[in-house]
Amino acid sequence: MRILAAHWPAPITQDDIDAAVQYSLQTAALPSPAARAYEIIRPAVVRVRALEAEKPGKPDVERSVGTGVVIVDTGTILTNLHVVVGAPRIRVEFADGLEADASIIGLEPEQDLAVLKARSVPDDLVAATMRSTRDLAVGDRVVAVGFPFGIGPSATAGIISGLRREFRSPEGERLLTNLIQFDAAANPGNSGGPLVTDDGELIGIVTAIMNPTDQRVFIGIGFAVPIETAASSVGMSPF
After folding, report:
1. Reported pTM
2. Do 100 and 159 share a domain, yes or no?
């Protein structure tokens, strides 16, 4: 009778593991840094609509549209003051489609900031993770998310172009200081939205764009209020 020898598989070597990892990296499409940042911050981004006073049986009349970012998961939202100032009603729309009325609970006119409180929120509402701007450097990659011209949520990517900038509003009424300058495209409707790192961490609130003409469109220079300034100006510790 013949006895067949058992054939055991060869042991896996480090070279085998390295080859498998290399193959996976070459064949699997990894998300871009901007895509990853967008997916992380998206649940905390809201559409902010400034509306005329409600009239029974009549559709809402929209004064303006902007963006906000949830900073407390009970429905506290940061946005720009100029998005909601003077509006008889404010309506916010969360990432899951839920809409709710919101009230202004804090203002910081010197930084063009407003704090909103939504009257109802999704059960699984996610707040943005805030990150110190202390170690930011010119050239760091950033992503802006918002509703430019009401379209969105839309993401644009770029870099930090400068730090500690100053900007005076076109009307000359307000001088904003210590701003983050960035070149990710921003347009009317992006106001109040988040500026985030590749890790989706909130570093600023998109506030203004510079254009030497009368056109309110982006030419490559945007400004955001650093999150430390934004949070502390409304009575919050960001970290």
Report:
1. 0.84
2. no
Specify whether 214 is catalytic.
no
Q: Which member of 64, 154, 161, 191 is catalytic?
A: 191
Residue 113 · residue 101 · CB < 8 Å: no
Q: CA distances (Å), 102 to each of 46, 58, 63, 68, 236, in order? A: 12, 20, 15, 12, 19
Active site residue 7: no
Structure tokens at 105: 């609970």
Residue 226: alpha-carbon gap to chain centroid: 12
**Per the structure, how many domains does the chain have?**
2
Q: Among 112, 154, 161, 233, which one carries the catalytic annotation?
A: 112
Residue 142 token pair: 């950033």
Q: How far is CA 124 from CA 74, 90, 107, 166, in A?
A: 10, 22, 27, 38
Residue 49 within a domain: yes
32: annotated active-site residue: no
Report yes or no: 202 and 69 within 8 Å, Cβ to Cβ.
Answer: yes
Active-site pick, 64, 82, 154, 161: 82
Ranges of the chain whose pLDDT falls below 50 = none
Cα dihedral 67, 131, 237, 43 in deg (nearest 10):
40
Let me know whether 50 and 114 are in one domain.
yes
Which pLDDT does position 61 carry in this prediction?
84
